[in-house]
Amino acid sequence: MTETPDTVASVADPADIAVLEARKRNVRRLYETCINEGRERLLDALLTVDFVGGDGERGAAAFWTSINKIRTAFPDVKFDVEDVIGEGDRVVVRWRFAGTHTGPFAGLPPTGKRVTQTGIAIYQCRGEKLCRAWLQVDRLGLLQQIGGLLIPA
User: Fold this and answer.
1) Where does 18-73 show beta strands of DSSP type E?
2) 120 CA to centre of own chain
3) Order of strands across the sheet with 114-126?
4) Structure confidence by residue, pLDDT tens digits, 95-128
5) pLDDT tens across 43-99, in order?
6) Structure letter (DSSP) for residue 101
7) Which of 10, 57, 73, 95 has the smallest C-beta neighbourhood within 10 Å, fewest atoms?
């Protein structure tokens, strides 16, 4: 019998599988433990020293500053990780956050409104640590919820 591409079994190196699973765990820990619980010190275990964030932040301290903008504006923020997918040196996470707008955000005063936002992030990894991030988030939807963008009737 001649094997076709869809019948050829792929055998992955167990070491590669272990590293990929560790990367996926670290992405999940970033959201569920570091961001949700405000555990800044965990960043050193998750990020490379030369990490570049989705908004161009360089290093853990700059990345934490970005996280704190969210945590200050929405102190009860909770990220729910909906999917984590990994391949090669990349891990993709799809998330949803909910929080109450009780602090200034994007130049807007607190509204007291409960909001949600969705997003997808792609992380490039080196070893088991995250070294680069690209983000796609629904900023428009978030701004609409807190009155930062008015939609004509």
Assistant:
1) 47-52
2) 7
3) 47-52, 129-137, 114-126, 90-100, 78-87
4) 999 999 999 998 999 999 999 999 999 999 999 9
5) 999 999 999 999 999 999 999 999 999 999 999 999 999 999 999 999 999 999 999
6) -
7) 10
18's torsion region: left (phi>0), alpha (psi -120 to 50) or beta?
alpha
Distance between CA atoms of 4 and 104, rounded to whole angstroms?
A: 58
pTM for this one? 0.86
Paired residues of 117 in beta bridges: 97
**Fold of the domain built from segment(s) 14-145:** Nuclear Transport Factor 2; Chain: A, (3.10.450)
142's tokens: 């978030």
Pairing state between β 129-137 and 47-52:
parallel
Pinpoint the alpha helices (H) of 30-117. Answer: 36-37, 43-46, 59-73
